[in-house]
Structure to design on (607 residues):
């Protein structure tokens, strides 16, 4: 799948589109990664700071709460140091519920005392001193509270039993000693009042605190409006709760799930399918715990706004980058497109195309190179055209100077006649063979000749070499009659035989044998020249074949002394004339001679 995609993008897309996609990828990819990293970092930082801020707020609330309760505890201790209060309570020391009335001056004295303690404390609903018999002294008017109260009728009062003079914080309750019918619940700081000398209980002090006093603790703190805050005592009883903006009681939800006692410290909890940040701080002084429940959605609100901003900014950047990428890709590819159009016109035969305007960058260098190439092509085209004309003129000149070859032929014929008269048969044969060689190399101007003519030329060459080697050279011909009329390049076979003589046979005391064979295989002509000479190592043969297989060049078309008598020349001639239809290869082994094979794709004669 990836290969198909890469192939599509690699082959079917133009350079301008590739550059456009590249610009977009190189710009948007880092931008996207940076946006994601910034968002994650910002979100984590906000979460961490919000959590720490909530922890600090809760801790501060608990600190303020401790300060408030310590003040109330101090108020509850003051009657122990006032003999008047102790004396009045002692007058009415009897079993609870037995009290009926008290002297008016005692009510007045106690009212003055309690009123002084409650002065300028709006959070205090009332301060009440209660004797063991139920006589109630308060800072409130006599019409607001009952003068006599039996504490046994209120269950919440039972928590003072057995307190041994320690102060107690009573959860929200509705005292029955108030005469009003719509009294709200109060939280009370209560204590048994004992005689400092005898430690006998003389009565009780109750300080009723309005619930608004706890709400005032939040007024000076920047507490999240959508968060819930509750204060519970050591028995997990709710003293105060500030619900979230939705009005749902977090305390009720925790009780419903039975998880109030299971949470501690700071953690994330899920209530009714919604995640919350749960923060709890416990006071060792009062035993109260302040609990905050902040919705995670509220904490991540700023992260969401950051995400929206980042996404919007990314869209704007994408649009800007797209426009910039289009402009840049157009500006970069414009010289290439102009060069492409010029090359198309050149392919159509218009060699006068030039790049008129170009810059000093790499595209400018390519444009200059194109102009130089076109000038060189134009020059070579003219040279080839002129060379063709000169070649025609040379052919005419050659026709006019044929008298010189005829003079040579006549001279050789005279020498041959003299050798015949003197009965020198070998000299006559060599002169006759030399004449045929000269006539074949000079008179024939065609590029291709029938195979039988090339074989006749080879036989003349062999006749001369046999005389030279004193009969130690034997040449065996194995020619298929069906290929004698096949056209082959002129002077292809004789260099192969000469190569076999000089590099295979020469230097051997017993001479050697050369086999020349030609056969037709399908539509292919195979000519093989093999000798039984010294041969070559396989490494040398591989190097020779590799050199032969190289593309044609000016040097390759020249014959050098050490290049096996022009094997490269023959191979390159075959490739130039037949393309892939002509080839030459060498095979052999040390001590077993060499075999040179010429392969030609057959063509009709005269083609």
């Amino acid at each position: 799948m990836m290969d198909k995609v890469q192939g599509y993008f690699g082959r079917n897309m133009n350079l301008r589109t590739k550059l456009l996609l590249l610009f977009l990828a190189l710009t948007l990819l880092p931008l996207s990664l940076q946006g994601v990293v910034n968002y994650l970092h910002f979100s984590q930082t906000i979460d961490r700071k919000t959590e720490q801020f909530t922890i600090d707020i809760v801790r501060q609330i608990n600190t303020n709460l401790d300060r408030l309760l310590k003040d109330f505890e101090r108020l509850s201790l003051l009657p122990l140091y006032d003999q008047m209060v102790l004396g009045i309570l002692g007058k009415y020391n009897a079993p609870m519920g037995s009290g009926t009335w008290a002297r008016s001056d005692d009510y007045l004295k106690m009212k003055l005392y309690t009123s002084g303690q409650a002065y300028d404390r709006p959070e205090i609903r009332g301060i009440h001193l209660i004797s063991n018999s139920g006589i109630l002294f308060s800072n409130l008017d006599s019409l607001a509270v009952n003068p006599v109260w039996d504490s046994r009728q209120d269950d919440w009062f039972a928590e003072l039993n057995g307190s041994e003079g320690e102060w107690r914080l009573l959860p929200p309750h509705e005292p029955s000693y108030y005469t009003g019918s719509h009294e709200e619940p109060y939280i009370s700081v209560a204590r048994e009042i004992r005689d400092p000398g005898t430690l006998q209980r003389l009565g009780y002090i109750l300080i009723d605190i309005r619930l608004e006093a706890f709400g005032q603790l939040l007024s000076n703190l920047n507490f999240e409006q959508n968060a819930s805050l509750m204060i519970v005592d050591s028995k997990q009883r709710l003293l105060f709760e500030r619900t979230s903006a939705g009005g749902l009681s977090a305390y009720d939800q925790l009780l419903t799930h039975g998880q109030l006692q299971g949470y501690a410290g700071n953690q994330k909890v899920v209530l009714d399918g919604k995640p919350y940040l749960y923060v709890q701080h416990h006071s060792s002084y009062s035993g109260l715990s302040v609990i905050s429940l902040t919705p995670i959605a509220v904490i991540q609100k700023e992260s969401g706004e950051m995400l929206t901003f980042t996404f919007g900014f990314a869209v704007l950047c994408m649009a800007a980058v797209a426009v910039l990428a289009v402009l840049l890709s157009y500006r970069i590819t414009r010289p290439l497109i102009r060069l492409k159009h010029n090359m198309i016109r050149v392919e159509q035969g218009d060699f006068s195309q030039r790049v008129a305007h170009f810059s000093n960058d790499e595209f400018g260098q390519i444009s200059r190179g194109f102009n130089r190439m076109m000038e060189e092509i134009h020059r070579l085209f003219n040279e080839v055209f002129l060379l063709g004309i000169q070649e025609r003129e040379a052919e005419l000149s050659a026709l006019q100077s044929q008298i010189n070859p005829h003079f040579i032929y006549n001279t050789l014929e005279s020498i041959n006649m003299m050798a015949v008269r003197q009965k020198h048969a070998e000299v006559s044969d060599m002169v006759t063979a030399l004449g045929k060689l000269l006539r074949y190399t000079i008179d024939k101007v065609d590029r291709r000749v029938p195979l039988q003519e090339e074989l006749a030329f080879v036989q003349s060459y062999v006749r001369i070499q046999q005389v030279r080697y004193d009969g130690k050279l034997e040449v065996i011909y194995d020619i298929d009659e069906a290929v004698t009329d096949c056209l082959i390049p002129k002077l292809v076979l004789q260099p192969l035989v000469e190569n076999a003589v000089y590099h295979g046979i020469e230097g051997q005391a017993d001479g050697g044998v050369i086999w020349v064979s030609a056969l037709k295989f399908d539509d292919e002509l195979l000519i093989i020249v093999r000798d039984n000479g010294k041969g070559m190592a396989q490494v040398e043969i591989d190097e020779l074949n590799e050199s032969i297989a190289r593309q044609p060049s000016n040097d390759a078309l020249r014959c050098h002394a050490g290049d096996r008598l022009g094997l490269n020349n023959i191979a390159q001639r075959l490739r130039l004339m037949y393309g892939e239809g002509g080839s030459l290869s060498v095979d052999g082994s040390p001590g077993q001679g060499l075999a040179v094979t010429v392969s030609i794709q057959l063509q009709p004669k005269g083609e």
